[in-house]
Design goal:
alpha+beta, single chain, 109 residues, elongated, 3 helices
């Protein structure tokens, strides 16, 4: 990842900036694009499917476990954000053995 401070005039040569950024000094982060959204989508679909099955049994939460090598911390954070955007209340914890624990909660309608 590369971090750089840049003047708005220099950046506007490359990008079409919104009005709110004009005349300001900006901070830009650059990193290589990774297309791992497919993997996160598959994982979130599996979790949603299990949550729907649990909701059918009148449960309002479900707990999932992930090993550290299964999902790196960055992907795990993005998965949590994705699940929150889908309307779940998400709680992330780490066990004493390093296992990541995700608890999904929802309201049965």
């Amino acid at each position: 990842m590369h971090r750089m401070l840049i003047d708005e005039k220099e950046l506007s040569r490359v990008l079409d900036l919104p009005e709110e950024f004009r005349g300001k000094r900006l901070e830009v982060f650059i990193r290589e694009y990774e297309d791992d959204d497919q993997e996160l989508t598959e994982i979130s679909l599996k979790l949603q499917r299990k949550a729907k099955n649990a909701a059918f049994m009148d449960k309002t939460n479900e707990i999932f476990f992930f090993e550290k090598d299964e999902l790196p911390p960055e992907k795990l954070r993005r998965l949590v954000v994705k699940l929150k955007n889908l309307g779940y209340r998400v709680e992330l914890k780490e066990s004493s053995r390093g296992t990541q624990i995700i608890r999904l909660e929802w309201k049965n309608g």
